[in-house]
Amino acid sequence: MNIAFIGLGNMGLPMAINLVKAGHAVTGFDLAKSQADALVAAGGKVAASAVAAAAGAEVVITMLPASRHVEAVYLGSSGLIAAASPKTLLIDCSTIAPEVARKVSSISAEHKVAMIDAPVSGGTAGAQGATLTFMVGGKTEHVNRARPLLEKMGKNIFHAGDSGAGQTVKVCNNMLLGILMIGTAEALRLGMANGMDPKVLSEIMSKSSGRNWALELYNPCPGVMENTPASRNYSGGFGVDLMLKDLGLAVENALGVSASVPLGSLARNLYDIHSKQGSGTLDFSSIFKLIAARS
Amino acid sequence: MNIAFIGLGNMGLPMAINLVKAGHAVTGFDLAKSQADALVAAGGKVAASAVAAAAGAEVVITMLPASRHVEAVYLGSSGLIAAASPKTLLIDCSTIAPEVARKVSSISAEHKVAMIDAPVSGGTAGAQGATLTFMVGGKTEHVNRARPLLEKMGKNIFHAGDSGAGQTVKVCNNMLLGILMIGTAEALRLGMANGMDPKVLSEIMSKSSGRNWALELYNPCPGVMENTPASRNYSGGFGVDLMLKDLGLAVENALGVSASVPLGSLARNLYDIHSKQGSGTLDFSSIFKLIAARS
Amino acid sequence: MNIAFIGLGNMGLPMAINLVKAGHAVTGFDLAKSQADALVAAGGKVAASAVAAAAGAEVVITMLPASRHVEAVYLGSSGLIAAASPKTLLIDCSTIAPEVARKVSSISAEHKVAMIDAPVSGGTAGAQGATLTFMVGGKTEHVNRARPLLEKMGKNIFHAGDSGAGQTVKVCNNMLLGILMIGTAEALRLGMANGMDPKVLSEIMSKSSGRNWALELYNPCPGVMENTPASRNYSGGFGVDLMLKDLGLAVENALGVSASVPLGSLARNLYDIHSKQGSGTLDFSSIFKLIAARS
Amino acid sequence: MNIAFIGLGNMGLPMAINLVKAGHAVTGFDLAKSQADALVAAGGKVAASAVAAAAGAEVVITMLPASRHVEAVYLGSSGLIAAASPKTLLIDCSTIAPEVARKVSSISAEHKVAMIDAPVSGGTAGAQGATLTFMVGGKTEHVNRARPLLEKMGKNIFHAGDSGAGQTVKVCNNMLLGILMIGTAEALRLGMANGMDPKVLSEIMSKSSGRNWALELYNPCPGVMENTPASRNYSGGFGVDLMLKDLGLAVENALGVSASVPLGSLARNLYDIHSKQGSGTLDFSSIFKLIAARS
């Protein structure tokens, strides 16, 4: 199948390469030549622009940094929607504001072009190992059409609802994740300040009602679990600035739809303070350092 | 075995009855005569005071409302510690401040009386069904001595560490639980305000990094899960005022040991506001109503 | 002077009437005919559209509900900027996002049309009594040109800086005001829960380091001060939903410029919860009711 | 008049010296010999214990670090209350928990000994310059008896109500002050992130509804005001750890009297984080550094 892949960054490039490996003809585009070159080296082709990459493609996939890039690439007279044929399927894998996803897909629908939003979780490791989770919004027929391709790049494909629902799930889940991580850090620090062994405390809470993903699989206290970012100086993993971006999307979205998010807002501000202290590129479990012990 | 059981409330009475059922000779005491009568009806005996109940008992179990009651019953020249023989094992199952638990057990140790703290989770249903979880602090030999009795009243027995560690785990776990519940409520409300089906959102987050005990087993949105308090108008379960008490213990403890608990403190204040609006006796998942939708 | 006045709502109408009273020829426009009629009754004229009202006007003043209305009225080929002559001075008195104010005035500058942002505080009473405070952003020469007109509608004219600075000051000030109000409510409730007379407490704090505008001039506790909304069931004054809007602008702005606003964000969420409980039209000092006493 | 002064720290010593200067016979006691020596050098006497200092004194003044010291010095068979004669007036100037103040003065009343609580604000500069503010709780006759002495040490004497009311006002006022300071820091940082001059922003807000003590007299942004701690690297003034102690008292008190203090609790946690990062001895306006700009 002819596939266009727009946005060959740390996530997009390995995703595009996985499609090449699966036997698809992938034409990529990225502003950074080195990234485009890497796709060619893996057996893909490159084009001089997003629209040029999309010419003749049955499916166009985008993986872009933020809402404004998605609007720039899709909308307007020289955007992907205007250039698409009625047979094209547009798949936006970027993590953006749900309201922007709804707007872009609504314009796409006016042009009779099929579009779904399909943000991912799983990080660069998931992109490379084709083990990403896709949270997908759009019509069932379009999602089903995309599914075989998404399965080449990921392991779990969740159909969340109509257009924008993929972004909504991503935003809700990651806001909750930010809260789980800080809450877990607070509980561990509180126990340790009482003299508790954080390993014992983690084990008991993992079998009790404090159980959550951050505590069980991604413990923020160094030494409690092997193979977590916390046990390698918070390197690797999901960065503070990415969590901060997602919490920002959640708070912005809450303003737009008039939702109350007191813990989510506080989590965003704590991550903002943490990032400004120079921890932006550390793993997000490093918030354990901001919730510090008295020395 | 001769057992004294002080405090026959909604939790203590069924716990004591489970010990009677297991063949033990249980002498109880409670200020409320009707509660004491219920123990007699179940085959136990009653005494006129805590110390009278404890006379001749090998094990004394207490289940009291708060720190001040534990201090009143255990300490002083007419308290349980002064009255205990060197062979008595004292087991405090109340949920109280870790610092008070450490203080009382330290005084007990000065008197050469064995004592452990063993707060529970699982609510009245767990007390009746003997499926409570015990979080235990104290010396290993004392915990092992208590274990056969605790297993008559509960399912999981966690030895958390030295004296006070049981209370510490309880406080940390329940603070985290309060945060999980509010965070889950916020995430669900945010998704719903974007038009998402809360059932679909819950399913996807339960398989993603937002996964946590409140979301999976105790979903706060009515209709998402059967057999949860949320699906029966927030009746039954673990009450708002009990969660508020536990969050108060956590915040007070954090002040004492100099810990930062920003989300835990905010959770306490939100539950306080919720309680004052008349929801104190509802299940704690009813915080979903405070984190309301725009009507 | 020929003046166009777009947006004749609760604020805009009395402002426009004050300009009529000062001898100016005011042509208004509003989507609501009754509001336009009221201007005519006061000696003004009405036009069929914003652009029609602006035709021939030396100064065009807008008073609109939100950012999107300002963008709709000013921008595009049929907007006020495109229709303006190089001699026109545009004055936007709406309270909107600073980034939108900067964007609109930047487009205006590209068209060589003078524009300033001049949001107000003082409420409907200030608009009627011509005692508004104007916070103005723009070039000094444009601000000086506007000043004589603004003085017909208000008492204090602050030149805050370049374009957008008026909106920035408004957003910062009102975020701080929301924090002052909740903080004052908390301090008074805490004192009262200790048995203090809120009047005595207010008097002492007003002479101490807790002194602030909300405490001294707008006390949220009923009975402490006469002639405050608190002493007339929180009627009149500055509504909860207006404060909620301004806190939303502050939080949104903070996301855009990457600022930490932990108390501001929490204030927004508390006002959001308060509004959803049916208090949207009460005065914003009614947050004292959310920060309730235990009954 | 014969006066005993217990607790000759950074605050107590200059207060005692001011009483010596006013012609009183002051006998002091402090665990630190150097402090006691300094009182002697200034014309006072020292005693070997608190009770020895109080022997024969008409008025006993205490200035101690925390609740537990006050309980230790006043209560018990060897405490000040037991040793006091019915003619003695006890004045506790320490800043402690209102509930402890109420308890101690209640025990004093049982012994028919007059006692008032009279915590101060104004810092070491106020203690040295005799410009302290006293917030006093107790019976009017006792307060009036103390007034001439308090006026030798301070400028403003506020009678807040019955026993404990002095502590209550102190706790409420300082919680509010902590909120004012962080809120002001947030507003200034938000403005600056939008390009505003913090001096202009401060001036306008000081004339608007954002007006408050921290903004006007103690601006946390370096360079905005001369002679503030912010303009001398946050040295001098009221330390972070003192504010943290007072916010801790407020939160603890709120737990005890069942009050909601969401902003107060968040302020406590932000100051706790700030202190743990090594800023404990800086002036409390240095929270402006935690609410940082993106570099």
List unreliable stretches of 5+ residues of chain A.
Answer: none
Tell me the distance between the termini of chain A.
Answer: 60 Å
Biggest interface, chains and residue tallies: A-B, 68 and 68 residues
Q: Nearest-angstrom radius of gyration of chain A?
A: 20 Å
* Beta strand count of chain A: 9
* Quaternary structure type: homotetramer
Largest sheet of chain A: 6 strands, parallel
**Average pLDDT of chain A:** 97
Percentage of residues in strands of chain A? 5-15%
Portion of residues in helices of chain A? 40-55%
- Summed up, the helix count of chain A is 14
Describe this structure in words.
- Four copies of one chain form a homotetramer.
- By secondary structure, chain A is an alpha/beta fold.
- Helices cover 52% and strands 14% of the residues of chain A.
- Chain A has 14 helices and nine strands.
- In chain A, the strands form two sheets. The first copy, chain A, has a six-stranded parallel beta sheet, sandwiched between helices. A three-stranded mixed beta sheet of chain A has the order 7-8-9.
- In chain A, helix 6 links the parallel strand 5 and strand 6.
- In chain A, helix 1 (12-21) packs parallel to helix 7.
- Chain A is elongated and about 65 Å long.
